[in-house]
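protein under study:
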Amino acid sequence: TAFNASSEEVASAMKGAGYAANDVASGLKTAFNASAEEVTIAMKGAGFAANEVASGLKTAFNASAEGVAVAMKGAGFAANEVASGLKTAFNASVEGVASSMKEAGYAANEVASSLKSAFSASAEGVGNAMKKAGFVAKDIASSIESSFHVFYRGY
């Protein structure tokens, strides 16, 4: 690469020059023949917000919400950042985010607290979304209890 710069240095320089996240993601993909996870790591290191990274991956890689969740988890984004990023980049529903996060390997308690935060969802709304995503009843119940500080028997 030019000047022997790392992908993170290039991402940071592009961000500083005012390039949009979608352009940075596409540029890194092309210049470094980088994978979605590599682009995610570089963009995170350069200080891009989760919603910007999610949008960039969607555009540059034509990535699915599940693919973006996997890459963002691999890059060390917190679960609540991933949920918010998916919601924004994909205009995803609470059910869609729950499903994508489950596919990416997030634990039930991480998904519940993230859905509560990203969507201001109720305990019932979170429980229903997690049920549709395929979480088992005992995991839904315990995650609702810890996220909402209630005893929940709905599942």
DSSP finds ten helices and no strands in the chain. The chain has a mean pLDDT of 94. Residues 21-32 form the longest helix (12 residues). The two ends are 54 Å apart (CA to CA).
